[in-house]
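Hi F.,

I've been meaning to write this up properly since the lab meeting, where we talked about keeping a consistent format for the predictions we share between groups. The idea is simple: the sequence comes first, exactly as it goes in, then the structure tokens exactly as they come out, then a line or two of notes. No screenshots and no reformatting. I'm using this chain as the first example so we have something concrete to point to.
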Amino acid sequence: MGRPEERAASAQRMRDKAQELEQEAAHTTQPQEHERLMEKARRIRAKSERINGPGSGTMDPM
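Output, unedited:
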């Protein structure tokens, strides 16, 4: 796997992790834990965008 493919795979793993954290945050009843998880998800998504560009790996259905 070449460099662009590795970056894309890494970015996808980060997006998947961010989504998991957002789902976990949605199910927590503690406001502080919800905010902590959402902030961590935001940081991971931002890092993913820095690595491979915004919205990379997603398809626009239009």
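Notes:
Confidence is low (pLDDT under 50) at residues 58-62.
The longest helix spans residues 3-27.

If this format works for you, I'll send the rest the same way.

G.
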